[in-house]
Amino acid sequence: MFTSFSLAELENAEHLERLREEVRAFLRAELEAGAYTREPSGWDRYDAGFSRKVAAKGWIGMTWPKQYGGHEKSSLERYVVTEELLAAGAPVRAHWLADRQFGPLLLSCGSEDQKRTYLPRIAAGECYVCVGMSEPDSGSDLASIKTKATKVDGGWRVTGRKVWTSYAHKAHLMNLFARTAPFDEKNRHEGVTQFIVDLDWPGITISPIYNLAGDHDFNEVVFDDVFIPDDRVIGEVGNGWKQVSGELAHERAGSERWLNAYGVLVHLLDSAGADLDRADAEKIGRLVTHLWTLHRMSFSLAGLLNQGITPAVEAALVKDLGNQFDQDIPEAARQVMQEEDRAKLPDEDRFNEMLDRALLYAPSYPIRGGTREILRGIIARGLGLR
Amino acid sequence: MSDAMLTDSAARLFRDLCTREVTEAAEAGTWPRELWNALTDTGLAAAAQSDTGVGTVDLCALARVLGAYAAPVPLVETWLAQRMLAAANLSAVDGALTIGPVLRRDNLKLERASGGWRLSGSLKRIPWGRDAETLVLIADADDGARTVVVKKPQGWTHDWSYAREPRDAVRFDRLPVSEEDTGKGWNRSELFFNGALFRTQSMAGAMERALELTVAYAKERVQFGRLIGKFQAVQQQISAMASQVAAGSAVAQSAAEANAERLARFEIAAAKARIGEAVAVVAGVAHQVHAAMGFTHEHTLHRSTRRLWAWRDEFGTETEWQAWVGRVAAQLGGEGLWRYVVAASKPDMGAALP
Ligand SMILES: Cc1cc2nc3c(=O)[nH]c(=O)nc-3n(C[C@H](O)[C@H](O)[C@H](O)COP(=O)(O)OP(=O)(O)OC[C@H]3O[C@@H](n4cnc5c(N)ncnc54)[C@H](O)[C@@H]3O)c2cc1C
Fold it and tell me: For residue B286, what pLDDT is reported?
C-alpha cells in the first residue's frame, strides 16, 4: 500500500546544475534578442521558430536513442531543461506534446518505420502533434469514446468528432484514439486503438473553440469517413487503452502541472517590493514553500522515470497538488497587489496582463490532463480503496 | 548499524513497548521508565552523542519513527541536547535531556561571578522539563551565546501540550554554573531551526500513521451495506489527505538531506511551514473518516492527531515560517527566487528568526 512518498535518490547534481546554467544562458540571450516575452505560462504559447531553436540545442527528444534523432540523456537532464524553460515562461507549446507524450509512445509501442519517420522530425522541432482523446460525450470516461474506425482494404475508415483538441489548428499530426470494435460494457477498455493522423487529410475539419479568456487554444475536429492506412496504427489494434495509460503518466509527471502561473509569482515579488507586511509575507511565503515542495517532488518523479518506474499514483498526486498551487498564485497575487495597487503600476508594466491571464486560465488547470476527481480516484486506487 | 537496521530496530522497540497503557500512563503524568530504559539499553537514547557516527539523515529517520509511534519520551530533545553539547565541546551526558529556550520570547542571562557563572531568567514550555535529568540551555553572556548544562533543577510548574506531553516552566535566579558546565556552541537561532527540523520529521511520521489508520478504517467499517472506503466521497477525501501526507513526507526528507551538510535554514523553514499547513487537512480528514469512533479516547487515532496539532505549534507555526520564507523571497526578488529554490545547495540568507 502506498502511504508515504519516498524521494528518489538524486544523482550527483553537478552536471545538472551546469545544464541549468546552459539553459538559462540560452534563455537570457533569447529574451534580450526579443525572441520571446516572458509569459505567466509559456506552456500555452506556440512559437515554431522558438521550438526549432530549442531543438538545435538538443533539448527535444533528449532521452531518446541517437538513431532516432534523440540525445540519450537521462530523465533528470530532460527534467532540468523542461523545468527551466517553463519557469522562464518560454513559448514551448509547439513541440511540447510531441516531445512529452507522442515520442515516448512511439518508442514503446510504435513500429520501426514509424520511429524512423517521426522521431527525428520531432527531435528537430519540426513536427508537432495534438492529442485526440476527448469527445463531446467522453471526457473523464475515456473508454466511452464513439469515434469509429471501420476496417477496409489496406486501412481504416474513421468517422466521429473530437473536442477540446489543443492546437489541432497548428499541429501536423493527431494522435487519434478511436474505437475499432463495438463497445462492450463488460470489457469497456477493449477495442480501442491509437492512430497517427495527418491533419491535412481529406475529410478532416478543424474548427476553433474559443475559451473564456477569448483565446483560440482548443478545437473541434470532425472526421468524416477519413481513410487511415494500416501502417498508421500505433502498437496493436485494440490495445489502445493500455498504451494510453502509460502515456498519461508522462502527461502528469512533469513540472508543467505546477508552473502554469509561476510568472505571476515572479512579477508579484518584484511589484510588491522588498518591504512586505506580515500578512503579505505569509501569502507569498506560503506559495514559495509550495513551489519548493513541488519542485522536489517532481524532480524525484523524474528520478523514478529514470529508473524505468512508471509512477502513476505519485504523478497523479503531484498533479493534484500542483494544480492547486497554479490556482493559488493568482488568488494570492490579487490579494497582495490589490486593484488600488495595480492601478498605480506604470503602463508598460505587464503585471495586470499576467494576472488577468493566470486568473482566467486557472479553472482549466485541474481539468486538462485528467480532472481533480479522476486523479483522486487514481490515488484512492493506489491506497487500495477501489 | 546501517540506517535501515537502526530505524527497523527502533520501530520494533516502539511497537513492543509504546503500548496504549504506557502512553496513557505517560499522559497522566507517569514517566515511562521501562520504555526509556529500553531506549538507553539499545543505544537509541545516545544516538546523537558525538562518537556514535549516526548522521543527521539517520537521526531524522529515527525521529520519524518516534512520531509514527507517538512515543511519549524526550528522545528528540535528548538528541538535540547531545548535539548542543558536542557543538560546544562539552562532554557527553547520559540520561534523559532536554533543551531551552524553546520560545523566542524567553531569554536566559549568564553572568560571570567568582569561581564561575550565574544563570538567570525564566523558561516556559520546556519539553519534559520535570522528567529531564539534565537541561542543556542557551544563554546570553557578555561574550555572546553560551551553552549551559544544568542538572535537575527544582521548582517546575507543570504544563501540557495538546498531546499531554509535559511542557513545563522554570525560573533561575542567579543559579551557580561552574566553568566546565559551559561552552560556546549553538546560538538560539540554531537551536530553534534544529528544533523545527526534528519536529518536522516526527510530524511526517505521525501523518503517515494517521493515513495508515484512516485507510485501514475505511476498509473495515461498513455502512449502507458497503465498506465506507467504497464511497467515492470518502475516497476523494482520503486521496486529498494522502497528497498532503506525501507533501509532508517529501519536505521532511528534503530538509533532512539538505541539513546533512549545513544548517539548511531555508529548507527547514519551508518544510516546517509546509507540513504545518498540511496538518489541518490530514487531521481533519482522519477524524471525519473515523467519525465518532475517532473522537473517543478509546481509539488510538488521537495519539497521532493530537501530536500533529501540538508539534505544528512548536518551533514556529506554519504562518510564522511562511512569513519568514516570504521575507527571504522578497530579498531574492523575482529573478533570484527561482535560482534559489531549485539550487541543490542554498546560500544562507541570514534572515532573523520568524
Ligand atoms: C484547456 C484544456 C485543454 C484540453 N486539451 C485537450 C486535448 O488536447 N486533447 C484532448 O483529448 N482533451 C483535451 N482536453 C479535455 C480534457 O481532457 C477533459 O476536459 C477532461 O478529461 C474532463 O472531461 P470533460 O471536460 O468532458 O468533463 P466530464 O468528464 O464531463 O466531468 C465533469 C465533472 O464531473 C466529474 N466526474 C466525471 N466523472 C467522474 C467520476 N467517475 N468520479 C467523480 N467525478 C467525476 C469531473 O471530475 C468533472 O468535475 C482539454 C481540456 C482543457 C480544459
Answer: 98
- Residues 268-307 in B contacting A (C-alpha not used; CB under 8 Å): 269-271, 273-274, 277
In this prediction the ipTM stands at: 0.96
- Is the pLDDT score of A3 beyond 70? no
Phi, psi of B107 (to 5 degrees): -135, 130
Kindly state the cell numbers that stand for B128: 519534559
Class of residue B158 by CB neighbours under 10 A (exposed 0-12, middle 13-18, buried 19+): exposed
Helix (H) or strand (E) holding A177: strand A173-179
The CB-side HSE value for A6 (13 A sphere, CA atoms) comes to 6
pLDDT of residue A11: 59
Q: Which three cell numbers stand for residue A317?
A: 498526486
Interface probe for A, chosen from B337, B340, B349 (most Cβ of A below 10 Å), is B337
Q: Give me the mean pLDDT over the A200-222 stretch.
A: 96
Predicted structure pTM score: 0.96
Q: In the structure, how many helices (H) and strands (E) does chain A have?
A: 13, 8
Q: Nearest Cα to A240, choosing from A154, A156, A364?
A: A156
H-only helix segments in A66-166: 75-87, 93-97, 103-109, 112-123
Q: What is the CA radius of gyration of chain B?
A: 21
Res. B341: pLDDT tops 70: yes
- The pLDDT > 90 percentage for chain A reads 83
Average pLDDT of chain A? 93
* Binding pocket residue ranges, ligand 1, CB within 6 Å: A 130-134, 139-140, 164-166, 218, 364, 367-368, 370-371, 373-374, 377; B 232
Query: Across residues A69-76, what is the average pLDDT?
Result: 96
Name the closest-CA residue to atom 44, ligand 1: A373
- Identity of residue A338: Q
Which of A367, A375, A379 has most ligand 1 atoms within 8 Å of its beta carbon, as the pocket-test mutant?
A367
B236 touches chain A (CB under 8 A): yes
Specify the pLDDT at position B349. 87
Mean pLDDT of B125-150: 97
DSSP-assigned states of every residue in A303-360? HHHHTT---HHHHHHHHHHHHHHHHHHHHHHHHHS-HHHHHTS-TT--HHHHHHHHHH
For chain B, the average pLDDT equals 96
The full DSSP string for A104-123 is HHHHHH--HHHHHHHHHHHH
B233 and chain A in contact, CB less than 8 A: no
Segment 78-117 of chain A within 8 Å of chain B by CB: 83, 87
Single-letter amino acid code for the residue at B276: G
Task: Tell me if B79 sits within 8 A of B198, measured CB to CB.
Answer: yes
